[in-house]
Specification:
about 230 residues, alpha/beta, Nucleotidyltransferase, domain 5, five-stranded mixed β-sheet, four-stranded mixed β-sheet, globular
């Protein structure tokens, strides 16, 4: 199964094409994580580049692997809109994952390389992933022994008590570096092996958690006139 993966929901932009075969992932092309500033302008060229480097046409793809949040409002909107459009046009399904889930996959891959392991997942769970949000908020998600999400992603106040049910759970912050397309495709391959089917494009929904930073002034329309 050939999968195109991309993410621009948070502070990085990644894209890559890989092939899942017999539980293993072979990357055909991958861009290293880079700053995600200018999401709307840079995402499509990045996708076109990895498709060209992988020498894969759209009819040769079997699925997408994409994040749908949490992250920045613009990044989530850009990523989800691109995934919907491309999946509908190519008539392929989508492996959707939270940003925290994709980062957990990347982290367990890194741990596995250090320990000489080859099978995914490569880390002992349970595990809590955290990621800084905006306006003093932190995104949080917990994962169980077999990499299953124990909670949905949620937004809590930084430094506050928040709804964290198990204070003894090992916690890893997502600061520094990007997710990497291979980790996303590894996670998609893990789901395939577990019998978890991808979703259709029209079922893909953004996971904002926090409201957008830009807001209209009270009594103002989008045209700047009083409502």
């Amino acid at each position: 199964m050939r999968i195109l993966a991309f993410d621009c929901c948070a502070d990085w932009l990644v894209a890559g094409v890989g092939e899942v075969r017999d539980g293993h992932v072979a990357m055909l092309a991958e861009l290293p994580p880079s700053s995600a500033s200018g999401h709307a302008e840079r995402l499509v060229p990045a996708i076109e580049r990895v498709m060209a480097e992988a020498d894969v046409v759209w009819s040769g793809l079997n699925a997408l692997a994409v994040t749908n949040g949490p992250g920045s409002f613009t990044g989530i909107r850009t990523c989800v809109a691109a995934a919907r459009g491309l999946a509908l046009a190519a008539r392929i399904p989508v492996f959707a994952m939270s940003t925290l889930e994709a980062f957990a996959a990347a982290r367990c891959m890194a741990d596995g390389r250090e320990n000489g392991q080859a099978a995914f997942p490569l880390r002992t769970f349970p595990l809590r992933m955290t990621m800084a949000g905006r306006r003093g908020r932190v995104f949080v998600q917990d994962f169980g022994d077999r990499f299953e999400p124990l909670t949905a992603p949620r937004s809590v106040e930084a430094g506050g008590p928040g709804p964290l049910p198990d204070d003894d759970m090992p916690t890893i912050d997502c600061a520094g570096g990007g997710i990497g397309a291979k980790a996303m495709i590894e996670l998609a391959g893990y789901r395939i092996a577990a019998g978890i089917v991808p979703i259709e494009a029209f079922h893909l929904q953004p996971l904002y958690l926090n409201p957008p930073d830009a807001r209209l002034s009270a009594g103002q329309s989008l045209l700047g006139k009083k409502a």
